[in-house]
Amino acid sequence: MAWGARWGMRTDLLTLVQWLSPAFPTGGYAYSHGLEVVMAEGERSGHGLRACIETVLRFGSGRADAVLLALALRQGADIAALDAAARAMAGTKERLSETVEQGAAFARTVAALTGRNLSARALPVAVGEAAGNAGAGLDLPVEEIVALYLHAFAANLVAAATRFAPLGQTEAQGMLASLHPVIATIAAGAVMAELDDIGTSAFGAELAAMRHEELDVRIFKT
User: Fold this and answer.
1) How far apart are CA 37 and CA 177, in angstroms?
2) What angle separates helix 79-89 from helix 123-131, to the nearest 10 degrees?
3) Which structural domain range is residue 136 located in?
4) Which are the contacts of 147, defined by CB distance < 8 A and separation ≥ 6?
5) Could you tell me if residue 23 is inside a domain?
């Protein structure tokens, strides 16, 4: 590979890392994805919270988002149809607001930075549209983009647990590191999946999201 091509991939990777950074103004820190209910109801251990996060990644919106993102990155993807599917698949009101609000903020910021015309989408579709081949996309492997997206999602949940539980910083980082193989496996599978392959079975996480809507005292939006 020529030096110029390698440099282009490196800058594209840095761009993606910036887009998925906690500093990027999507407001991700304000969402716990129902984890606040789990912690409010008594689960504060690192082991228990890690299990909750892994469940969401493997069987909940983590894998669903991964597939939607991978599909949005494909050449000729019907972005509007994928966005409609992502919204329809949101299991609760808070799940819907979480993905739509973050996706709109993401698209708005990327549009301001790049001059592209990006519409408000559900978050994984917004990332796919921005990073894909439809515009000034990123020259990165799809599996890598999906893995970094999932890592950012998991990192945000770990950060929520660190603030609420609270977990020690070292324990929290160990928890996130232990999820790396899970993230890699999900990303690899998402690349080969189709829309009909999306299915979730993280019922506890969905019920927690529903209970969060009526939580008396809330730190997080979801």
Assistant:
1) 24
2) 160
3) 39-212
4) 183, 184, 187
5) no
For residue 124, is the peptide bond before it cis, meaning its omega torsion is within 30 degrees of 0? no
Query: How many structural domains is the chain composed of?
Result: 1
Q: 199 to each of 59, 89, 110, 203, 210, how far by Cα in Å?
A: 8, 9, 30, 12, 19
Inside any domain, residue 24: no
Q: Which residue has the higher pLDDT, 72 or 44?
A: 72
**Cα 203 to the center of its chain, rounded Å:** 18
Residue spans of alpha helices (H) in 115-221 = 123-131, 142-164, 169-178, 180-192, 203-212
The answer to whether residue 83 is domain-embedded is yes
How far apart are the C-alpha atoms of 193 and 38, rounded to whole Å? 30
Task: Label residue 215 by pLDDT band (50, 70, 90).
Answer: low
Contact between residue 68 and residue 86 where contact means Cβ atoms under 8 Å apart: yes
Does residue 96 lie in a domain region? yes
pLDDT band at 1 (very low <50, low <70, confident <90, very high): very low
